[in-house]
Fold each of these.
Amino acid sequence: MSDFLTPAEVSNAFIGIGKKKASIPGFKLLLLGILAGVFIGFAAHLATTVATGWTIGGASALFGLKKFFVGAVFSVGLMLVMIPGSELWTGNNLMTISLFNKDITLKSMMRNWVIVYIGNLIGSILLAWMIAKMTGLTAGAVGSTAINIAAGKCSLTPLQAIFRAIGCNILVVLAVMMAVAAKKISGKILAIFFPIMAFVTAGFEHSIANMYFLPAGLFSKTFTNAEAGADQVKITALTIGNSVQNIALVSLGNFIGGAILISGVYWFLYVRKSNQA
């Protein structure tokens, strides 16, 4: 017996997965969404910590290697989402396979997406506030890194944000599909690790991760030491308004990459009824 599902099998599996997700009670869905926001936030804070201190004589050192390690540790976020179980909006973009196949309605899918998105936002901001305000972990060098990461995201042009987000969710939903295809925990971990490492290392944009990164940067600005160590040229871009705009644009790009490009193509290739005749 194979250790993994074929592309056709895993694509068709998302019909049942989408139907199940569409029927989850609202309060349970919200709690699962909050958990996913916290899990991705843990990974984002870990990535921020790992990204801190990679300089020699004031210049960035080993840029590519640093990005690789940041991406490697960030992959723990989707592992926490997929294996213990929670609801992540970017992964739930695969529900459009069920929608295209007319197994769920647009209303039921949007209900899931709205509740999960709100839950992800609550969980991400709550963790960012807790780490910054309750523990002071971002009061120094880590806070400076958090500010720089957030300011960099706020400095993206709209097209940069959208296209980086498209690339991101292509890889994220492929990681979800591969994790579902794997039948063993070890296989699921490997299936998640490589695509997530790839999107972070490549500099792509994930809306739910940004729900943590941007508030973390804003909260860190309240610490004098953190702000003093940040990039003073970019820091002016880090505002609430620019943060909201970034999350909106990145969400749009994630939707295009995950819900349309990957879900649509795999539904067309493996799920639509004419392929099953």
Note: The chain has a mean pLDDT of 93.
Amino acid sequence: MSDTAQDEKRIRDEAAGWYARLNNTTISTDTLRAFRDWRRDERHAGAYAEIEAFWVRAGKLRHDEDIRQAEQDALNRKPRAQPGHTLRSGRSLAALALVVALAAGLAVAWPSLVGQSYDTGVGEQRLVRLSDGSRIRIDTQSRVRVRYHDSARRVTLEQGRAYFEVAPDPSRPFKVRAGAAEVQALGTQFDVRRAADLSIVTLAEGRVRVAGASQTWDLKPGQQIKVGAKEGEVQDVDVKLATSWTNGRLVFRNLPLGAAIAEVNRYSPAQIRLTEASLNEARVSGQFDSGDSDAFIAAITDLFGLEVAARDDKQILLRASR
């Protein structure tokens, strides 16, 4: 380690120690005076601010499985007290445990615990290549968070939809959390979507185990499960149809018009609105390029006798032709 790196690590260790002491229930005047003297150095002040900000963010993730594991790992290590000082019981043992973890290397700890987030805007798709060779194709208006550790690979689908191509690594399970569902995969390809209060898992290749609140399912290729407050049954589906979005296509097969409109709207800032509520359950089939609202509108206006009543940057209103 270079002299500069050692110096930075020393300052981080000191900042972590100060944070633990200042969050103690008993703080002497001498301690506060010593802290003010230490913090006069700009590097010290910056390191302390970084530790303080980290704790605020980590506090929001107290129930996160990886944060809890970090606390336990830290508890298993013996903290190093600052020279000439003794650490007393602080706000909580977990707080001190996190401080110890920080002292071991804040710059490395935060990305490992919180992970890397990837998101997409309206009409955007994104392909993310992970360090182990796995790939995630992220659909429009979606967000995923990836956290890789020595013993596990974890992904959280926070909203939207994503298609996973998982590189085999038996020593590090690949798990995807999406709402009430957790998917564990080994060398496989599968689609996960969060829709309202449901998480929908579709297996394309390989095998996955899907765990819900009270039940577990082992899927075979071509099967799908919907996990939510009311857990459904495994169904056989057309994988090419269910994952057509990965090729930039929206394929509808005997789908209710209202559901088809909702899907098209995910890819466009101008939302299609239908005044004829009676047509929401009418069935529609067809293939459209994702984001090509005009082609979809042309097809359904012709099919159902509709016309564009009003249009602007935010809305396209359809009504029965007059």
Note: The domain at 115-241 is CATH 2.60.120.1440 (Jelly Rolls).
Amino acid sequence: MKISSKTHRLYRLQQVIFYILLSLAILLLAKFSLQTNNSWDWTQNSRHTLSNTSRDFLQQLNTTIDIQIFISPNNEYRAVVEALINRYQEQTNHLNISFINPDFSPDLVRELKIQQQGEIVVSKAEKLEHLFDLSEQSLTNALISVSREQEQWLVFIEGHGERTPLNQANFNLSTWGAQLKQKGFQFQALNLVEHSQIPTNAAAVIIASPETAWLPGEIELIRNYIDHGGNLLWLTEPNTNQFLIALAEQLDIEFVAGTVMDPNAELLGITDPQFILVTDYANHPIGSATNSVTLFPQAVAMEHTNVASDWQHTALLTTQDNTWSETTVEPQQTSADFNYDVNEDTSGPLVLGYLLTRLHANDDDKEQRIAIIGDGDFVSNTYIGNAANLDFSIALINWLVQDDELIAIPVKTTLDSQLDLSRSESLIIGLGFLLVIPSILLSVGFGLWWYRRRQ
């Protein structure tokens, strides 16, 4: 076909217009990319995005916190640290970030006792936290810790076989204690026989499953502490709640006889019905911070006895309808031996935990808070890692000391770092890359060649 000069000019004009429009599109895209910052995190547990709890905390942060990162410019972890810090800076302007080269700041390194490359120092006024691992959990916990207006002391009563965060036995609470320390809490063990008063700076007193009877004088000390507006967490058990009946009467609580049974535990592969699954948290902020079911081994139920009480009772933990409280539980019994007896047992739903609130005895603007949970195993080293027990227990303490805005930060693990394929799936993928895709490409290429040859 003969191409005229007019056709040639139109073709050249078409090319010019195409390249002009292409250049404009590239410029507009470049400008758009500079003015916007959108990203999508497609990992299974969104590990490249801050959790909702971290974002909520940062957005309500109203005071400046200093973050010093001691890392060399050419360090292999520099990009990882910058990526983590950038996620925090996107949520708040109250973080004063500074990257410090430890090679050129030896005096500051000695002053702050820096131990390694990539170490992060989070500080506010006199409070200071050192971080040695690059994770959202550690950094947010450090921010929470230094942002507290005052030190929060938790007093653990001892002397009656109670669980303690200072001992690593399976029965005890050292794992829970380590998580609480990361969030800025301090502990003190207190024997009421040796010390006749509770420290005035105690944010809350914790009675963790006593195994022996209390002296009348010890009970009176706790009752006086409550009368004067003290916060309390009381963890009790089916066979030991009678040791503090006087305390239960003061709080208008009565325990249901027996041990709670839950056949729904089979949904998690647990054949022992003494493991209770709880998903009903009374639409309370503690429940909002608990991301799934919680597990309570060998729990006791309780009831609210006095409607006219000055306490406001909230049933925080409620079992499902098909549960019951078994009155005859022997050590040698198996799961098949537990059956509901209409004449002796109490049918569900049952309450495993109450929250009590009232106006503070000495300050009408302050709320007094008490939590009673019919199980102490759920925070023990053996069971705290099960289900959402850790999230629930941290949220419970934050509520108890009235740090409602300081919520638990979930641990993010790399859930999708490994791809497990069956033999047939591996074969299909292998054949696809080795045969199917090359065949498609060859067919397309041959088709184009054949089409052009016929023109």
Note: The mean pLDDT is 85.
Amino acid sequence: MPDYVALKKKVDELAERTWDVAGIRARVNKMARSGIPRKKLDPKVMLANKEQILDRVQRRAEEYNFIFKNCAQGTAMAIMEELGQGNMEIIKALCPFPGIGGTGDMCGGITGSLINFGLFFGSDDPLDLSVMSDPRRSPILIAQRFMAFFEDAVGHMYCADIIETVILGHRLNPGESDGAMMTFAGEKGFEKCGLPPGMGARLAVDFIIDSMK
């Protein structure tokens, strides 16, 4: 059951945050030039430092969402950076994914996370389907569990519903027109909409770290 009081408090904090625009842009530009640095993940270290890692990836997802003005890209970028996977071509491919083409459909906090489940749990061989039947590592089963947890935490999975009940408090689909986008921006929607990417990225990395046990 969503804690709407805590969600509103977080939305208000995001609306009033002073964003380090230069610092965030510098990180993005470095990865655009040099690629996402690869990491050798140590399960023991990841598990021992899980809360610190989750705090960092949540903050980064909020920041990248603000810079990109794109929840799917912001979510995916933060997780890929934290885990050392993926590339900037994936970020490019996620351009039309907020609310699934701006229709108000599936939240980018979900789609940006699902991309990373595929990168982390999927097989390098597209013809190898054995991973799909492994209950501990099946991207499909993990995605289904993640989506249920996300909905329980945020209250909804669809962008338009999240905006109405959590972000702005009224119905608005910023993707439907230039006027709607201007209204959304004027109500600090891009700042406030860091909440679903932050929560999605945090939950996704939590799932991934727990799989290392």
Note: The chain has one domain: 4-210.
